[in-house]
Amino acid sequence: MSIVFDENLRLGHPGIDRQHQEMLEQINKLSEKLTEGADDIEVRDVLDFLYAYANKHFFEEEKLMQSCNYYGLYKQQKAHAQFKQETQDLQQMLRKKRSSLDLAHQVETSLFKYFIEHIDGLDREFADYLKMNNLQAFKITAPGAPLKP
Ligand SMILES: [Fe+2]
Ligand SMILES: [Fe+2]
């Protein structure tokens, strides 16, 4: 399974969009590795990178929310923690040597679904808040090319 980062997922804040695109690419890559039967080490590398990148993205997004006094911060923190947990669950499944088929299924039914719904739901609400209050000049930190695994 692979999901294209198209216009429907773009929220109009370049820093956030760039990081969302990178995260989606990593989830696509993970799904690809699992369906092509890559070995555990390759899968683990992608998964570990995704986990680290998700942490970085959520941390920066929350920091941006704090600096803009965003009312929805708490809800976002809870949602971000849930995504991190889902990624950790996958790491755990991999350590327990569950089949790639099981992991691929989990990526499709939880990670992809959750991430798309989060962008289109809570993150869109935040992007709209920035637009409505003319706060788009507030940038997410760490510009430049993201790290690759
Ligand atoms: Fe978010
Ligand atoms: Fe986000």
From TrEMBL:
It holds the Pfam family Hemerythrin. Keywords: Iron, Metal-binding. It comes from Geomonas silvestris. The keyword Aminoacyl-tRNA synthetase does not apply. Belongs to the hemerythrin family. One of its GO terms (molecular function) is metal ion binding. The lineage of its organism: Bacteria, Pseudomonadati, Thermodesulfobacteriota, Desulfuromonadia, Geobacterales. Gene3D superfamilies: Hemerythrin-like. This is Hemerythrin. Residues 16-126 form the Hemerythrin-like domain.
